[in-house]
Design a protein that fits this description.
Length: about 375
């Protein structure tokens, strides 16, 4: 086999973007697509459409399409169910972010995945391929930064207007989408957070529902985290600020690393902070230090295709997956725990109780002003099944 035959379920904004580049890869070919709304196929260029088969029913698609792997790009609630059905039909899978709406659903999907070790299972965590993110990971893992004491990530560059939220009645509703900035906009940063720093032992957060927009779900979150080794973290996210910012600061023993505007800057201490603090006779002044602008290898303009290429190579020659599906539960748990803490005004210890979160979400869904059970209200999973 020289290339992998891919199919895509969900030809909306993201699915139709995936359609455009898969055919350009040397190790992948797009052979079929599926969407419950046949109008979605009009988003595919005619020259591509004549080379692929279009399906409107997912199970027929999994059974009859000439595909080895499926990319699932439908709204969030349907990710676990469609991924499970694809694996049961013997297909390798790539699931769009987030892996699921809540932790118990991710657990259900991962448990099914464990029954299919012969299938490659990936998540579309394309931001792991960005050069700066890979460099930060390398700097942490090589010990270049020393022990990390504090991390701050302010990710408020996700501005969305009311027109964005009004563009679909399912959007930003508990029943239709299942969450706000933590579930829709921030899954990449939450995944990168756990990828770089691991999981905290506790989270205390504030979450504001519809603070800047006429929506049900959270559009501003301020979270504080503590780790076993004493590291503390702050994660601040909003869709209501303009201009927003994407600024990550890592304060470590050997200096401070800042990532902002695509630039990575390391202010390097000559001597580790704790040793200097212990030994210096200087009451106030910091140790000598120097500033390094760290070059990064790629701008991330090929993020999505890099993931597809990786999954194809994993299928063809057992290349290690960049973003194994099972890892998706960690960033999801961070987001769920922030919301649980914020809405119940309490500290949440991790691992969190997935049933407690599911119960809270079920209450929010019951009161949701969006009344359908999925984007279309037809073939998608009934939300009640999730609880
Ligand atoms: N990785 C990224 O950078 C990135 C960026 C944007 C969106 N996304 C993710 O992509 C996914 C889709 O988002 P979107 O903005 O394209 O949504 P969208 O609403 O534009 O498109 C979803 C499509 O799925 C179809 N659909 C719904 N249920 C279906 C089902 N059961 N079977 C077949 N088709 C079904 C709908 O008809 C629609 O065409 C979401 O999970 C989102 O978070 C990822």
């Amino acid at each position: 086999m020289d290339y992998v035959k891919f199919g895509i379920v969900g030809i909306g904004n993201m699915g139709s973007a995936h359609v455009k580049y898969i055919g350009e890869l040397s190790n992948a070919k797009l052979t079929a697509v599926c969407d419950i709304n046949p109008k979605a196929f009009e988003r595919i260029a005619p020259e591509t459409r004549e080379k692929i088969k279009c399906f409107t029913d997912a199970d027929t698609f999994f059974k009859e399409a000439d595909i080895d792997a499926v990319l699932i790009a439908v709204p969030h609630y349907d990710h676990p169910d469609l991924a499970i059905r694809a694996m049961k039909a013997g297909k390798h899978i790539i699931v769009e972010k987030p892996i699921a709406v809540h932790k118990a659903e991710a657990e259900r999907l991962i448990a099914e995945g464990a029954k299919h070790p012969e299938l490659k299972q990936s998540l579309m965590f394309c931001q792991r391929t960005i050069g700066a993110h890979k460099k930060i990971k390398q700097l942490i893992e090589s010990g270049e930064l020393g022990r990390i004491r504090r991390v701050n990530w302010v990710i408020t560059s996700w501005f969305r207007s009311q027109a964005y939220y009004d563009s679909g009645d399912w959007r930003a509703s508990w029943r239709g989408e299942g969450g706000g900035v933590l579930l829709n906009q921030c899954p990449h940063q939450l995944d990168l957070w756990q990828w770089l720093f691991g999981m905290p032992k506790m989270i205390h957060a504030y979450a504001k529902l519809g603070k800047y927009h006429d929506i049900e779900v959270e559009d501003e979150v301020n979270a504080y985290m503590e780790y076993e080794d004493g590291m503390v973290g702050n994660f601040i996210a909003s869709t209501g600020e303009m201009p927003g910012e994407n600024r990550l600061v890592i304060a470590a023993e050997k200096g401070k690393l800042t990532y902002e505007g695509g630039k990575l800057t390391f202010v390097r201490n000559e001597i580790e902070t704790s040793e200097y603090s212990r030994t210096t006779k200087n009451a106030f002044g910091p140790a000598d230090r120097w500033t390094c602008d760290i070059p990064v290898s790629s701008d991330g303009s090929h993020q999505h295709r890099d993931v597809i290429e990786n999954v194809a190579n994993a299928i063809l020659r057992d290349e290690t997956l960049l973003a194994p599906m099972a890892e998706g539960i960690r960033g999801l748990e961070l987001g769920n725990a922030m919301l649980l803490s914020g809405l119940k005004n309490k500290v949440v210890n991790l691992p969190m109780d997935s049933a407690e979160y599911a119960e809270m979400l079920a209450g929010l869904v019951a009161d949701s002003r969006y009344k359908k059970n999925s984007v279309t209200g037809t073939s998608a999973v009934e939300i009640s099944k999730s609880f």
